[in-house]
Amino acid sequence: MKDFNFAFLDEGSKRAIRRALLKAVAIPGYQVPFGSRELPIGRGWGTGGIQVTLAIIGDGDVLKVMDQGSDDSVNAISIRNFVMACTGVRTTTDSEAATLIQSRHRIPEIPMRNDQILVLQVPLPEPLRMTEELESVTKKMHAEMDYAIMWLALYENIVRVGEIELGADYPVMVEGRYIMAPSPIPRFDNPKLHMSETLCLFGAGREKKIYALPPYTDVRSLCFEDHPFRVEDMSGRVCHLCGARDVYMDEFFDSASGDRLFQCSDSGYCEKRRRAASHE
Amino acid sequence: MNEPFALSLEGLVVRHGDACARCTRNPDSFQRNRCPDCGSIWAARDISLRVREGEILGIVGESGSGKSTLMRALYLDTETVSGSYYLKSYRGGEEDVFKVNPRKRKHIRDHLLGMVYQNPHSGLRMPYSSSANVAEKLIAAGNRSVASMMGRTNSLLTHIEIPINRVKEPPRNFSGGMQQRVQIAKAVANNPPILLLDEVSTGLDLSVQARVLDLIKRVQREFGVTMIIVSHDLAVVRLLADRTVVMLDGRIVEQGVTDQIMEDPQHVYTQTLVNSLL
Q1: Is residue B4 in a domain?
Q2: Could you say which of B103, B106, B149 has the minimum Cβ distance to residue A155?
Q3: Is B16 exposed, middle or buried (0-12, 13-18, 19+ CB in 10 A)?
């Protein structure tokens, strides 16, 4: 007999999390509270995403775990090893081969399909927190759709600096109803959420919240009529490894030559392109 | 009731604290507005008001008499025990505004009412720019164009004599008089038919006070706004108000045409008040 249940959590816990997920899918963009379980990883290290993954993973799933686009960061490797050890599922770095992708801070470059699920780790699920610190108040603001303060913060930014300075975690309006934090993905990834074919699940373990975007959900980044939403400008940047353009790039400097280099942030995508090129 | 009242309030009761059997059964059994048994404060006791369109109603009374409580109730800012409230601008005064759902309440506050608080800290977001403070009302009313909002806020702030090169500054950098003027600009941003002014000129020096009062007169003339003005300064009320209501311990003790109240006060408290006027 094994010392732990399939996918680590007991069946009761998994069912409770799945119930929260069902509610989240039923009310897109609404933050559903859930009883965040203890894991052998500290809260704030992706435990929300892990619990969602553990609650929905099955025998036949193929898992990919990425952290800021990379399959090879310590965090991604630890989480992948943990889920693998307690489920025995196959894993991959190829986003197209995966059925389930858990990610921190990025959405894969290759558009995901309807038969895949994306799980995003969320540090701060409440988009209104930057303007209001009390949970009792933000809950009421969501209930009454009282979002003037959020727009006001963006307006103030434009008045002071001439543009909206938010980078990652740029707030979105879901189905014209709830303002939602898309987790700290770059603005570059925000448009991928709009009318996405894929079910996106968001888990915040420390803050004990789960929310979701079912496939084909209307997701708009907040903007003004005369200040349209802009993504990070990647024009003119070419990946020094695979030659890709128009994808989200990491920038770094060669310590020997001092050259400024760009590299695909999505390492699985970059690797796949290089493999395809070498087969030609 | 065929007369076109812009605002009418019937039997408003506001209480702070859990009432006990004694004060619920007989709230008139004690002297002031505090129940000696349970300590509940009956801040507004059966207040009824009617204000005609374009009229300025003054409310006077000593501190603690329930003036601000009444104003907060009129701005839908506080829980009420009982009472009904009708606005001509909301469904022709057919529906009790105290009973509407939170979404509609927000709509009424954003479109039909403007409020200037006694303390600018209650009415303004001090860390935000003055421009954004005024724009908040426009945003709440659904405006999503930065250029049009900037145009409107700049013209409003110029109108109330805030120099154009200071509109990006937060109100906390401003003097008390300027803060009050920013509050007024914010309150009138959406051209609400009703404006509630709670001690707007209190604590300001006389020359600034004169300019704020002048501004209120101008707003009333230009936009034909219905106003309720609270003040413990009889001179202010005498200058602005067509009719005056005198409050004491959460009740209206006397009301009438302002001149009449000033020249021929009937209630003992009003007599004391008028006689104390320097």
Answers
A1: no
A2: B149
A3: middle
Interface-testing mutation among B108, B131, B146, B166, with chain A (most A C-beta atoms within 10 A): B146
Q: Per the CB < 8 Å rule, is A227 touching B128? A: no
Q: B142 is in which domain, residue-wise? A: 124-191
User: In this complex, how many residue pairs, one in chain A and one in chain B, have their CB atoms less than 8 Å apart?
Assistant: 45
Q: How many domains does chain B have?
A: 1
CB contact under 8 A, B135 and A152: yes
* Torsion (CA) B201, B202, B204, B209 in degrees, nearest 10: 30
B131 touches chain A (CB under 8 A): yes
Complex ipTM, two decimals?
Answer: 0.82
Q: Which residues, at least 6 apart from A15, have a Cβ–Cβ distance to it below 8 Å?
A: none
pLDDT by 10s per residue, chain B, length 278: 456 689 999 999 998 888 888 787 777 777 788 888 888 888 888 999 999 998 999 999 888 888 989 999 999 988 899 999 999 999 988 899 999 998 899 899 999 999 999 889 999 999 999 999 999 999 998 899 999 999 999 998 988 888 999 999 999 999 888 898 899 899 989 889 999 999 888 777 788 788 888 888 888 888 889 999 998 788 889 989 999 999 998 899 999 999 999 899 999 988 888 888 75
- Measured between beta carbons, the chain B residues lying within 8 angstroms of A226 are 145-147
Domain ranges of chain A: 11-125+175-219, 233-280
Distance, in Å, from the CA atom of A145 to the CA atom of A140, rounded to the nearest integer, reads 8
Hey, CA dihedral for B73, B75, B78, B84, is it positive or negative?
positive
- A11-125+175-219 has which fold? Rossmann fold (3.40.50)
